[in-house]
Amino acid sequence: MLAELDDTLAEFVRHLSAERNRSPHTQRAYEADVRALFEFMVDRGCTSTADLTLPVLRSWLAEQTTSGLSRSTIARRAAAARTFCAWATRAGRLPRNPALRLAAPRRDRTLPGVLAQQQASDLLDVAGLAADDGDPIHLRDRLALELLYSSGVRVGELVGLDVDDVDLERRVLRVTGKGNKQRVVPFGVPAAEAVRSWLSLGRPLLVTHDSGPALLLGRRGRRADQRQVRAAVHSLLEHVPGADDVGPHGLRHSAATHLLEGGADLRAVQELLGHATLATTQIYTHVSVERLKATYEQAHPRA
């Protein structure tokens, strides 16, 4: 790639980190997307950022479509291009923003699998039985599953928790979510019991000088990572007959769905999940047919 484009990309990535406070995952994704855009430009004879125009952007996205990429990937690449163009215009790298009229396909609205309430209960029972052997990893896995389902936190938020982020007296977590935004999330009595067991019987057996304040630890005493939690969820779900292999994100979705089925307000669920807009919550969650029928029969005068 040409030096000027390479320098522009490096500056854009620094902007994402220092000014936009985007997560490392988002930074890597946007960097890869803009790099792909620049490589497309170079292949067509462009030599600088100023050569980026709306026709170039549209041609780039059209090529993504013909190459067989999913609608979600193309939508993300379009979002990365819009973010880049807005920044480049403000930074003087572009004379005007060419992405203002850039259209892209909507993301696929596929939802993760969801457990039935009884399946979620069975899963947590399995985790509890496994923890009865006193193995600190089993105690940790029980806690991880209880918190994922009880609070609806993301798995990345879960492994980022420190001991001081857990308030057992009030039964709330202080969670740092996307964009480094903090929120307070409640959890239930069974999760509180799992926290106490882990802190008194599990964590002390694994803690080392490398542990720091991390709540969840691995075998070697370092902060547990997302892969370890995912492996635990998948492994324990194998013992729940008929349950889909949903993973940690499915537990989050199950928690939100079961809250709605129990009559929770959609805005309350939005706050719990840490969604910036209610529209995201409406897409992320779904209300059961049974609850819709019950609401209709209760509210409609001709039901």
From TrEMBL:
The active site is at 154, 178, 249, 252, 275, 284 (o-(3'-phospho-dna)-tyrosine intermediate). InterPro entries: CB (IPR044068), DNA_brk_join_enz (IPR011010), Integrase-like_cat_sf (IPR013762), Integrase_catalytic (IPR002104), Integrase_recombinase_N (IPR010998), Integrase_SAM-like_N (IPR004107), Tyrosine_recombinase_XerC/XerD (IPR023009), Tyrosine_recombinase_XerCD (IPR050090). Residues 3-89 form the Core-binding (CB) domain. It is found in: Cytoplasm. The keyword Cytoplasm applies. The keyword Nucleus does not apply. Site-specific tyrosine recombinase, which acts by catalyzing the cutting and rejoining of the recombining DNA molecules. The XerC-XerD complex is essential to convert dimers of the bacterial chromosome into monomers to permit their segregation at cell division. It also contributes to the segregational stability of plasmids. This is Tyrosine recombinase XerC. It comes from Angustibacter luteus.
